[in-house]
Amino acid sequence: xxxxxxxxxxxxxxxxxxxxxxxxxxxxxxxxxxxxxxxxxxxxxxxxxxxxxxxxxxxxxxxxxxxxxxxxxxxxxxxxxxxxxxxxxxxxxxxxxxxxxxxxxxxxxxxxxxxxxxxxxxxxxxxxxxxxxxxxxxxxxxxxxxxxxxxxxxxxxxxxxxxxxxxxxxxxxxxxxxxxxxxxxx
Length: 186
Prior knowledge:
This protein is α+β, with helices and mostly antiparallel strands.
């Protein structure tokens, strides 16, 4: 029995050593941003960096960041955090109602349906959005865009918050607009 315990300790020690070597060898490299959103009606924090949809991107980091800022401004998404070095913009607590830019929210979010149609078009929505360039250092290869949201009926004082799910179209729109801004034909 002690032979098995000794062997298990050696394996665990080797695994720990490998993890430490990996951590030390990546210590000089930048790490992906870790945006944690806490939305009304959703228990616990949402790690947006785990939800990011990747889109190929071509351009230098500064140009991509400027394009990303322009897209957020065009969509009327206020920026809470901006880090040009990482190519990161986010807002983890944007209050949105009915439309984003000039588009009904239901094109981007599914908050369920009610008697009047898609709830996203009527609900008070809290949106968390984060966009960043990967890899965090070196030549950019992709733009990650992540979204989480919750909403509730503003007319129903007794109604609770519901989790809204992304349809993926806002993430795609952000990436397409950034790439269009970077294209030479512009």
